[in-house]
Amino acid sequence: RRVSTIRERVYRTLSGAEQALQEGAPQEAHSLLEQALAGGTLNANETAQIHNMLAHVSLNAEDHGRAAAHLEHVVRLQDRIPAGPGIHALHTLAQLYFLDERYPDALACLSDWFARAEAPGSEAHVFMAKIHFRLDDMEAATASLERAIGLARGAGQPVQEDWWRLALYLYVEQERWGPVVEVLETLVRDHGKREY
Known about the structure:
mainly alpha; elongated
């Protein structure tokens, strides 16, 4: 796909906004970016970069709603911009939806992200499991979590204790007693806490 470049004046605006943020002046950064949007004549890539930066400003202010709105704009442009910013926007948007308990929206975003991302890692599968869990889809949550554990083990990485705890809960909910015993043995062996 053909992607437009970022022109010098837009690059200066983005740099100025970044510097304002670093200097603790988020309102100035916001103002610079909004002026650039209002000025018109931006190509898709420039518009996406400005909305990405506005999302960053909003996240710093802990305004999840506004950050999500800016990222939604980036996602709408993702077929006209470089892949990286669009994919990153999808993942961040899924996280924001999750935090705001918009679980169906989080699932849709993360599913789209999985379709576009190269080799999603174990953490992404755990995130997917947590979304399914919140949607009361225990089978899908279990499948995602088992994929995460398999990826971590395959890469020689330790499986985090909270993943095992979630697996234990999911197996108990589904009355899958064989895996319950295996997970409990793993928790006792690897995390030896009295509660196990």
